[in-house]
Amino acid sequence: MKTRSLILLAGIGLCGVLCFLVSRSLSRGSVYQGKTVRTWLVQLSTAPTPQARAEAEAAFKALGTNAVPELARLVRADDARWRSLIWSHTGHLPRQLRALLLRQAGTPNAYLVRPAAARVLAALGPGAASAEPDLVQALQDKVNGTYWEAGTALGRIGQPSVADLTRALQDRDTLVRCAAAHGLGEAGPAAAPAVPALLQLLKHGNPNEQQGAAQSLARIGAPAVSPLLDLLLQDEGAIAQAAAGALLRYYSRTGPHPRAIENLPPDDTASARQQAMARLGTSSLPDELVVKLLAGAAADDPAPGVRVAALQALAQGNRSARLALPALVACVRDDSPAIRQWTARALGTITPPCKPAVGGLARLEQDQDESVRAAAKAALASLTPAGTTNLLAH
Predict the structure, then answer these.
(1) Where a domain ends, among 116, 135, 157?
(2) What is the C-alpha to C-alpha distance for residues 8 and 283, in angstroms, rounded to an integer?
(3) Does the residue 312 lie in any domain?
(4) Could you tell me if residue 382 is inside a domain?
(5) Using CA atoms, how far apart are residues 393 and 358, in angstroms rounded to an integer?
(6) How confident is the prediction along the chain (394 residues), in pLDDT tens digits per residue?
(7) What's this model's pTM, rounded to 2 decimal places?
(8) Do residues 223 and 269 lie in contact, with contact meaning Cβ atoms separated by under 8 Å?
């Protein structure tokens, strides 16, 4: 009886200490609608209903950047030592008392809180810039899986994080390297300074690293095109395949046209891309790959000179331009007379003639620019079978 009483008294005392520690812990964090940021993160990660998750999302939307300091702390926070001790040393207590203590202490949840905090920081984008040092440290957290979410958040911060992510490409751990490569892709064109490091990862990394580097290079866009074409033309095997995949991914991406995106960094790589298009057109690579890449460049490259070079390669090469037909039809309405002129010449190489090609040439034959009209008439003449006066009807 005496032993049981002592255990009961110890349990009561422990409850008192626990209540003090819990209240102290709650006072340390920001509180919104009666819940701490940590509590909202747990709800966001474990809520059983969409309504509860939406409530947590709304809470973080309302908190905005005010939550960044607490999120930065939580992205690398461990479970409180007192909580871990309670879970480790209450096995000898009576069942009801133990249940009460554990309920008051709460479950250790750093494995939920850390990645959730990084995800919320990623959603804040550049507004989470002050959390960059904590996110860089979180790249090393493989136990809780925070490394990937931290890479994403660093990428969404943008240009200020590019140097840290580039250095992380040299980390000894492949998981960290993959997360850093992914983060650079999230940064998009702002990660142009990281292109050489990503190319090294593409050439020397393992298959997962090569895939991650290729995806990120595609998302960085124009500054990566010329180096990728160099790899494609010079290397063989897996490296060339990865480079081709990155180029095709870039030129077939969906979303706003690159020329319509605001605040892009200055494009000082257009001349190199223009020369690369000419080399691509005369390369010994398979016809289908070459035509797809030239077509993508003709329709989607942000530099008019590169688009003209791609159209010239299609018009002057000995490859079938039929695979490029959708891109050529789109170029018929381009603002640049030079692009419309070379589009007409490329359409004139598609044999046998087809309705989309002839229809595009018929439109260009009425163009306001004389050089475009002349190119369209010459292309139609080259496609017209002997004795045929109405090619479109034919």
Answers:
(1) 157
(2) 84
(3) yes
(4) yes
(5) 10
(6) 545 544 444 444 444 444 444 444 444 456 778 888 888 888 888 888 999 999 999 999 999 999 999 999 988 876 545 444 544 545 555 555 555 544 544 444 577 888 999 999 999 999 999 999 999 999 999 878 899 999 999 999 999 999 999 999 999 999 999 999 999 999 999 999 999 999 999 999 999 999 999 999 999 988 899 899 989 988 778 888 889 989 988 887 644 444 444 455 556 788 888 999 989 988 888 989 999 999 999 988 888 999 999 999 999 877 888 889 999 999 999 999 999 999 999 999 988 888 888 899 999 999 999 999 999 999 998 887 643 445 555 4
(7) 0.76
(8) yes
**Chain position carrying tokens 């790249």:** 139
CB within 8 A of 164, min separation 6: which ones? 132, 136, 154
Q: The tokens of 50 are what?
A: 């969409």
Q: Round to whole Å and give the CA distance between 74 and 49.
A: 24
Tokens of 11: 């349990």
Q: State the Cα–Cα distance between residues 263 and 260, nearest whole angstrom.
A: 10
Between the two ends of the chain, the Cα-to-Cα distance in Å is: 107
Looking at the structure of the chain, the number of domains it has is: 2
Residue 201: inside a domain, yes or no?
no
Q: Show which of 104, 136, 157 is a domain's final residue.
A: 157
**353 inside domain:** yes
Rounded CA gap, 225 and 273, in Å?
A: 7
36 phi/psi in degrees, rounded to 5: -75, 165
Angstrom distance (rounded) from CA 38 to CA 109: 9
What CATH number is attached to the domain comprising 344? 1.25.10.10
| Gyration radius (Cα) of the chain, Å | 30
In Å, what is the CA distance from 302 to each residue of 24, 59, 189, 238, 261?
Answer: 56, 40, 12, 28, 10
Domain that holds residue 312: 272-394
Give the separation between CA 343 and CA 308, rounded to whole angstroms: 9
- Token pair listed for 351: 């044999």
Who contacts 183 (Cβ-Cβ below 8 Å, separation ≥6)?
Answer: 150, 151, 152, 153, 154, 155, 161, 165, 168
In this structure, the number of other CB atoms found within 10 A of the CB of residue 213 comes to 33
- Using the structure block, give the residue that is written with the tokens 């605040």: 263
